[in-house]
């Protein structure tokens, strides 16, 4: 479902929907605009993101040469804290750079927050500049400034929000600063005040716990994915948030009644027999997002390759020959590619350095058009991006902030059969797909007894690490299941045979 088109003024606002699929061991949330998947979030019980969590850490080692430190926070790998991510002390002047060896020593207790999940062989990235989010605000206990989201563009509203938050802070006697989030646009005085009182209570609880708990302890954890999507994304622009789990839906209703009663009727419970993501074409879109080739409507295509160092995107005209001149054909393909690249970066959650190899253009005006189309398309991305100029070879460098694993890193692993040159789905990903297929058959009343044929490693997962989840699915669906290992099956292959 490619959402590419020639750059043109938008005549109407897109219809935005959030879909939340809750299954045993895994929760997924999809962000759709006009029925097209823009973003996918995945949270697994065993490997959930820890970004935003606040820990009482213990300094393991100080690296003066790198101006950084390794901090134990209770995760499998020590986390990493750089001096640039530490709050500057009042006594430190702007003219003299602080030294980490003057701030930390081995064995010190330190309050830290995860800013980036562990990736590959690297531990999580930390900061001491803590930020605690609520629905309308983000509280920064060590930063005195008051800011307003850049996506709130009306200057009068920005001024109202800034002065309101400042006056409430003074009334409540709070220290620290606040950032008004995008969803705070139009928020009334009493709602902002309630958020600030809530955040002050959370911060006091964190400080109290930090004095009495042992190091490597979690002091504050972010909300579950369905509620987090509500908190972060439920704005007047969102037409509906649809969830397929009754218990999670009731939690969402409770959250909206408390914090956003005007949106309560937009939290919908999906009860149809066809799986939610299948009904909306999301499953197919996710599968396509794991493939390197992305077709364009014009007949051209992109090749997206993710490496350790960077992401490369190659633009090709393919079978598109146009109806006018070669330059117009190249321009049209490049503009369509610019829009598609922006969506694919967000959908695949690709970050770091991205190099886009557009088809060579001679006309400088055409180059400017393509660059403008790319920048406009990237404006909708919540992640921070920067775009360089087009080089003489038609290359454009883009950087995109990376805080969590890409879709490929999350759902796939290096293929042993090809010595890591390609990727296959992890055993967990295959098992969760199998669970969803079991639920689909049960809801459709198409089976009561099943024979599951799968690769030996998958059968091993179902009987070992994921045995609890597998038993829960069997109990929920009421299916009687037999397992059979097939030596000739690939790791991604499985069959459900109705008995």
Tell me about this structure.
The chain has twelve helices and 26 strands. The protein has helices spanning 155-172, 189-212, 225-233, 246-259, 276-279, 282-289, 326-348, 364-378, 407-411, 427-443, 456-463, 467-477; strands at 16-23, 26-33, 36-44, 54-63, 68-72, 79-82, 109-116, 125-127, 132-133, 137-140, 146-148, 177-180, 217-220, 238-243, 267-269, 293-295, 301-306, 311-316, 352-357, 385-390, 395-400, 412-414, 423-425, 449-454, 480-485, 494-498. Strands 4, 5, 6, 7, 8 and 13 form a six-stranded antiparallel beta sheet that branches. It has a six-stranded mixed beta sheet with strand order 16-17-18-19-21-20, with helices on one face. The chain has a five-stranded mixed beta sheet with strand order 3-2-1-14-15, sandwiched between helices.
Instruction: Give the structural class.
Output: alpha+beta
Shape: globular
Q: Average pLDDT, to the nearest integer?
A: 87
Please mark out the parts with pLDDT under 50 across 5 or more consecutive residues, or reply none.
Answer: 1-11
How many structural domains? Answer: 4
Percent helix range: 25-40%
Roughly what fraction of the amino acids lie in strands? 25-35%
Number of helical segments with 4 or more residues: 12
Largest sheet: 6 strands, antiparallel
Cα end-to-end separation: 36 Å
Total number of strands: 26
């Amino acid at each position: 479902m490619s959402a590419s088109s020639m750059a043109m003024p938008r005549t109407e606002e897109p219809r935005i929907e959030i879909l939340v699929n809750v299954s045993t061991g895994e929760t997924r949330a999809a962000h759709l605009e006009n029925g097209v998947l823009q973003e996918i979030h995945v949270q697994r019980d065993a490997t959930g993101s820890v970004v935003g969590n606040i820990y009482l850490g213990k300094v393991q080692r100080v690296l003066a040469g790198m101006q950084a430190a390794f901090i134990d926070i209770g995760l499998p790998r020590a986390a990493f804290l750089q001096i640039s991510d530490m709050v500057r002390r009042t006594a430190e002047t702007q003219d003299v750079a602080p030294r980490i060896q003057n701030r930390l020593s081995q064995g010190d207790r330190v309050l830290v927050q995860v800013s980036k999940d562990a990736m590959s062989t690297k531990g999580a990235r930390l900061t001491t500049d803590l930020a605690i989010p609520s629905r309308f605000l983000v509280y920064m206990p060590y930063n005195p400034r008051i800011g307003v989201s850049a996506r709130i563009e009306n200057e009068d509203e920005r001024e109202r929000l800034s002065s309101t938050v400042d006056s409430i802070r003074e009334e409540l006697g709070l220290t620290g600063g606040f950032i008004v989030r995008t969803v705070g646009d139009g928020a009334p005085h009493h709602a902002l005040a309630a958020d600030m009182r809530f955040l002050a209570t959370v911060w006091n609880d964190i400080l109290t716990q930090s004095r009495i708990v042992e190091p490597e302890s979690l002091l504050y954890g972010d909300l579950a994915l369905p509620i987090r999507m509500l908190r972060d994304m439920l704005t007047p622009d969102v037409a509906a948030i649809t969830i397929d789990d009754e218990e999670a839906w009731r939690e969402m209703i409770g959250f909206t009644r408390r914090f956003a009663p005007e949106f309560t009727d937009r939290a919908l419970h999906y009860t149809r027999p066809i799986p939610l993501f299948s009904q909306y074409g999301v499953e197919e879109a996710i599968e396509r997002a794991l493939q390197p080739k992305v077709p364009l409507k014009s007949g051209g295509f992109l090749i997206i390759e993710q490496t350790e160092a960077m992401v490369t995107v190659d633009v090709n005209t393919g079978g598109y020959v146009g109806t006018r001149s070669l330059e117009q054909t190249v321009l049209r393909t490049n503009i369509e590619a610019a829009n598609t690249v922006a969506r694919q970066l967000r959908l695949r959650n690709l970050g770091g350095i991205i190099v886009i190899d557009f088809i060579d253009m001679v006309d400088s005006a055409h180059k400017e058009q393509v660059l403008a189309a790319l920048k406009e398309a990237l404006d909708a991305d919540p992640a921070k991006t920067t775009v360089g100029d087009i080089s003489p070879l038609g290359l454009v460098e883009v950087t995109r902030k990376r805080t969590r694993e890409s879709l490929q890193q999350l759902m796939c692993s290096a293929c042993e059969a090809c010595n890591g040159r390609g990727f296959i789905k992890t055993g967990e990903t295959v098992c969760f797909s199998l669970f969803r297929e079991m639920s689909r058959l049960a809801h459709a009343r198409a089976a009561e007894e099943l024979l599951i044929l799968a690769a030996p490693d998958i059968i091993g997962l179902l009987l070992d690490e994921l045995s609890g989840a597998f038993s829960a699915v069997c109990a929920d669906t009421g299916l009687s299941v037999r397992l059979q290992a097939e030596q000739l099956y690939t790791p991604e292959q499985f069959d459900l045979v109705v008995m």
